[in-house]
Amino acid sequence: MRILALTLVGLVSLEAQAAQIVALDLAAGGGVTPALARAMSSVLLNELSRREGMSVISQADVRALLELEANKQMLGCDDTKCMTEIAGSLGAELMISSELARAGETFVVSLALISVAEARVVRRAEGRSRGTDEVATEAIAAALHDLFRAGLPAELQGPRALSRRGFKAALAGLFQATLTRGGDVKSARRRVILDLVHTELDYDASPKIDTLDLDIRRSIARLRDLALLSADSDELEHLLSAIDHYHALADDLGRVREIRERSRARGVVPSDRPLRFESPEPRERTDPEARERYAKLSEPARKVVRAALEAYRKGDAARFVRLWPADRAEGAKRELADNKASDERYGYTYDLLPIHATPPWLFENAISTLERKEMLVFLRRYKAGEIDDEVYVRLAESDGGWQITSW
């Protein structure tokens, strides 16, 4: 047996209180607005995550997982009994329910620690603080200190790492956080990455590492598709920033792999100290002047493509062919027939990609063709009403106008 394995076994046996815990959102009690309760839910989650040995799944993570799985029946779950069932399906040992109330100038945080296996409250705690909204965080910290002051009974303990399904919930929650304006992406990213280190302390983290690697690639691809549906340039920028977060997550994963390999090679316990979780650097962006230039130069070509797309939808071959060079008329007819048959078979439909929703990686290709006196105009492709991909139409300038050369 490897030295590392022996070391880890000894370490795990000394773990004082390890468990996977599902943290429900803070309920808004008397004198507290729902907005303040939501804001303080993030504080509660972060405070819990900092406790040694606790692997935390938020209610937002649970909702994101259920949405991903299209579990409509469980999505409507909002009571403790129902949430206990979900926590059990995630392999959690514990669940925590909470309420934030205010009496005069005093905030009161009430916590209940619930055994998932027995569906019963095993401990209650309370924290108080006096002052403005900002001091509610102090009440949360005091309540958590009181709740875990005596440690956890042996029967409530478990591995410090998330279960595989719990890890899947954390990944779903991370993706939702990237989509939400003002979402706490950094904390969600931190919880996911630290769980890999915690997993390596309990057993082999390789399956989770592979899961995260695949999730990063799938999430970037999904965000790139969503970028094509941007309602305006601000939304596009938000989605590009979300992609930047996943590139940063990929960098984090690379460091975890390095930590893991070095620890195993040296026979030492892996540590999370080399992980800084730095803010992502913006990657691909389009120069505003280049965007304006393309928008102006491409409008005549886009007008041709709009007409071609209308003719294509109606199957109007004569009108479609007139938008091509005369020497390519036969090829245009074949393009129309072949593509129509393929699109009907796969259920594809198209519309013109707006300029504001054109991401940097497409602009780079579009601008490069201008030097050859050609033009790329992009279409959005849908399958069963859902965005599927982007495709392009190539045009060439002829006699002062634009004609289609490939469809």
Strand line-up across the major sheet: 2-1-3-4-5
Instruction: Characterize the main sheet.
Output: 5 strands, mixed
Average of per-residue pLDDT values: 91
Please identify the structural class as seen in this structure.
Answer: alpha+beta
Rg from Cα: 27 Å
- CATH class placement of the largest domain: Alpha Beta
* Number of strand segments: 9
The global form is elongated
Q: What name does the CATH topology of the largest domain carry? A: Rossmann fold
CATH-defined architecture of the largest domain: 3-Layer(aba) Sandwich
Order of H and E elements = HEHEHHHEEEHHHHHHHHEHEEE
Low-confidence stretches: 1-15
What does this molecule look like?
53% of the residues lie in helices and 20% in strands. With 407 residues, it is α+β, with helices and mostly antiparallel strands. The protein has 3 domains: 1-14 and 160-283, no CATH class; 19-158, Rossmann fold, CATH 3.40.50.10610; 288-406, Roll (Nuclear Transport Factor 2, Chain: A). A hairpin with a 2-residue loop joins strand 3 and strand 4 (106-115). Helix 7 runs parallel beside helix 9 (206-227). The termini are far apart.
Summarize the helices and strands and which ones pair or pack.
Blueprint (H helix, E strand, L loop, with lengths): L2 H11 L5 E10 L5 H16 L4 E5 H10 L3 H4 L4 H10 L4 E10 L2 E10 L4 E11 L5 H13 L15 H16 L5 H18 L3 H22 L5 H34 L21 H27 L2 H6 L6 H18 L1 E5 L7 H11 L3 E10 L2 E13 L2 E6 L1
Concise synopsis of the structure shown:
With 407 residues, this protein is α+β, with helices and mostly antiparallel strands. It has helices spanning 3-13, 34-49, 59-68, 72-75, 80-89, 136-148, 164-179, 185-202, 206-227, 233-266, 288-314, 317-322, 329-346, 360-370; strands at residues 19-28, 54-58, 94-103, 106-115, 120-130, 348-352, 374-383, 386-398, 401-406. β3 and β4 (106-115) form a beta hairpin.
